[in-house]
């Protein structure tokens, strides 16, 4: 009979080490459950379907909730630092995805129907669990953090241009064309620059239309610049990330396969 520490290690390997065959099978199973659960929640919001298949939806929801509850407690049991997992992003998402169903048993009575609906709607948070299975998610997150300074400077420049263009449009068009104030003109500039174009305000003069055309063309470039900045950072991050090997002590990723120690906490891999 395996010891408790051996069992915890095996469970940890299956649940947190996605590169092992058992880990991949576990991830695929959880992935299917998440997609199925979110699909059920979405279908349940359709009045006609809810009226005809309410009992089926409730049964499926309890099945999903019980399975996700088991998963949650296994994660808490197997991780070396339970509190760190419980208060981590994914730990909170895992907890949030199972609480609403249990809360619906406590909140009873027609006067609390709205509260029950809100709680049940929170089950859609299970969709966030999908990010656990997207390896590029961490890479994208790192790239965005590394790009924040450049993007902030760029957005500051765009904001300045928006104020200037909005002020010019207010002077050129005036109140007769709907540009009743500088804030309204700035609103039009933002809508036009982002290529949304609601059409509630439109320039009438030739000069205003020329300026609007330039703003529209400029909008495509403004959308492309942040994308390019993040793409460059992702390319740099991709070169640094050699593998998805995870430290079992602190859960730090990105260690080479031949690493002997965790570069974050110093944990010895090959004990």
From TrEMBL:
GO biological process: action potential
Keywords (A to Z) from UniProt: Ion channel, Ion transport, Membrane, Potassium, Potassium channel, Potassium transport, Transmembrane, Transmembrane helix, Transport
Record-linked Pfam families: Ion_trans
InterPro entries: Ion_trans_dom (IPR005821), VG_K_chnl (IPR028325)
Name of the protein in question: Ion transporter
TM region positions: 28-47, 54-74, 86-119, 151-172, 210-232
GO cellular component: voltage-gated potassium channel complex
Domain Ion transport: 24-238
The UniProt record lists the keyword GTP-binding: no
Main location: membrane
Subcellular location: Membrane
Protein's membrane topology: Multi-pass membrane protein
Gene Ontology MF annotations: voltage-gated potassium channel activity
